[in-house]
Structures are given as C-alpha cells and as structure tokens.
Specification:
The protein is an alpha/beta fold and about 300 residues long. The protein has ten helices and twelve strands. The chain has three domains: about 110 residues, 4-hydroxy-3-methylbut-2-enyl diphosphate reductase, catalytic domain (Cobalt-precorrin-4 Transmethylase, domain 1), CATH 3.40.1010.20; about 100 residues, Rossmann fold; about 80 residues, 4-hydroxy-3-methylbut-2-enyl diphosphate reductase, catalytic domain (Cobalt-precorrin-4 Transmethylase, domain 1, 3-Layer(aba) Sandwich).
C-alpha cells in the first residue's frame, strides 16, 4: 500500500498558541484551572488536559469566584467577558488572532452602520462568540440556499464576514449568492478563512485524486477537519474522519492501493504518527510526504497569559 502524507497538516499557529497558553498557566498556577469551552476541538488534547487538572466549562457560572478562566481558541462574546469580570475571574484570552480579526471587523462594521452577514455554522462556538459582538446587527447564513429568503433591513448598508474554518468552496458559493442579490455588499479587507484551513483543504483537493482512500485525523466536532473530509469526497475519493488509529475499519481497505493521510488543524502529530505506524504494520505501507506549501506562521503568547505567568 502506498501512503501519501499531506503537508501541511495538523496543528496551526492558533492551536499551538492556545495549547501553550493552558500549558503555561498550569505550570505557573497549578490545577485546577478552568477553560471556557474546549480549548481546541480535539478529543485527545482535551482528555490530556483533563487528566492534568483542567476543568472545561460551558458557562461562566461554573467557575468559582476569583479563579482563573481561559477563553478558548474559538473566541467569546463581550457578554462572556463581562460575566467573567463580574465574578472577579482572572481571564486569560487564548482566542486565535485570526478569529479576533473577524471580531474586530464585526465591531467596525456595526459601528459604521452596516448590517453584517456572518457566513458560518450557527451553533459553532466561533460563530456564537462573533455574533455576540453585534447582536441585532448581524445575521447568520450557513448555505447559499438561504440567501434568497433573507429578510434584511432595507435602509442599511450590508457587509459580510466568514467563520475562519469553513470550506473555501462552500463559503464562496454563499458569497457569490450574496453578491448576486446584494451587489453593493461590502467584503472584508482580507479573506477571513484562515491560512491553515485553506492550505489543508488545497492539499486534499490536489492529492486526493491519486488516492483510493483519504483518512483525516481529527475529532467529530472539529469544523476544519470535517471540511477536509468534504473536500476529499468532492474529489471523488472515499474518506473517513477518525480520532485515532483505533477507529480504522478493515473493510475500508478492500481493494485499496493508495491512501492519503492528513490531519485537521487541532490534531496532534503523535496521532498521525500512530496511524502511519499501524498502516505500515498491518498493510505493509510505504509512506511518502507530499509538501504543497511550507508554513512558518507563529503567534506569541497573549498579554494576559504572559502577565499571569510572570506573576507566578
């Protein structure tokens, strides 16, 4: 069996930064520390932190007064920040800077009198946090099919932003539909879909036609990982999203001679390594790495984390 290992794959700069934030706060303050929502959408990362004394919460009320709370990479609304301040919590912000960019765009558009279309998944934590920046001035659209029935304020100018982890092609379909119906709609100064999402999707689109099977390492609640599976299927390949090698099924490999392996932006490298080892042991796989683009982006620890670590 031939295995093609896609590069880039796995952790992006925002995920690395968010994980480092929790690591550093744990090291400086010790457990328990509280994290609002999963720090990133990966089961193994979350389970590892739980084993080390991290408590993941879904509401700020679950955090005892005066304790540390880390905001996840997906960002939070101003209402959550206000609630944390009201409980005298030490808030550490691990929001990905690329998500913060979209938040800032929403704030700016709302201030300038625009009604904003947020293209994304309504229930995703990134969407909830971003929409919370301008409640009453923003409408969420998930698919191009929703555009014809949109009821929007007639007197306001329109602008759009997108969730950072969307399928590039799906987002473009929505954008095209919006521009067709609202020709004057304003686009963000720079694309909101993050570089890592774009790069990983492009790698799958380019390489998947060579593979009989595509395996994406990532958790089921990871938006960007699910979009990689979508891209593979769009290319005509069978594709599966797996948390780790234990989820492989023998029937997937019947007649398979070539496999593309990639990983979502929140999946650790060791999970990919374990998968490659199993494919080698069970199917005599030979592995070649295919690099489409080198990534050298990194984000430093946010000020709130640096200050807390220094004050240890």
């Amino acid at each position: 069996m031939r295995v093609i290992l896609a590069n880039p794959r796995g952790f992006c700069a925002g995920v690395r930064m968010a994980i480092q934030v929790v690591d550093e706060v744990l090291r400086a303050k010790g457990p328990p520390i509280y994290v609002f929502h999963e720090i990133v959408h990966n089961k193994h990362v979350v389970d590892d932190f739980r084993s080390r004394g991290v408590v993941f919460v879904e509401t700020i009320d679950e955090v005892p007064n005066g304790h540390i709370v880390v905001f996840s990479a997906h960002g939070v609304s101003p209402a959550v920040r206000k609630a944390a301040a009201g409980r005298q919590l030490q808030a550490v912000d691990a929001t990905c800077p690329l998500v913060t960019k979209v938040h800032n765009e929403v704030v700016r558009y709302a201030r300038d009198g625009y009604h904003i279309i947020f293209i994304g998944h309504r229930d995703h934590q990134e969407a909830v946090g971003t929409v919370g920046e301008a409640p009453g001035h923003i409408t969420v659209v998930e698919a191009a099919e929703e555009v014809p029935s949109l009821q929007l304020p007639q007197s306001q100018r329109l602008a759009y932003v997108t969730q950072t982890t969307l399928s590039v092609t799906d987002a473009q379909r929505v954008i095209d539909a919006l521009k067709a119906r609202f020709p004057q709609i304003k686009a963000p100064p720079k694309d909101d879909i993050c570089y890592a999402t774009t790069n990983r999707q492009e790698a799958v689109s380019v390489i998947a036609p060579e593979a009989d099977l595509v395996l994406v390492v990532g958790s089921k609640n990871s938006s960007n990982s699910n979009r990689l599976v979508d891209r593979a299927k769009d290319a005509g390949s069978a594709a599966h999203l797996i948390d780790d090698a234990s989820e492989l099924r023998p029937e997937w490999f019947a007649g398979v001679k070539s496999v593309l392996v990639t990983a979502g932006a929140s999946a650790p490298d060791h999970l990919v390594d374990n998968l490659l080892r199993k494919l080698t042991d069970d199917y005599g796989a030979t592995v070649e790495t295919r690099t489409l683009v080198e990534e050298d982006i990194s984000f430093s620890l946010p000020k709130s984390a640096r200050e807390l670590v220094v004050l240890k």
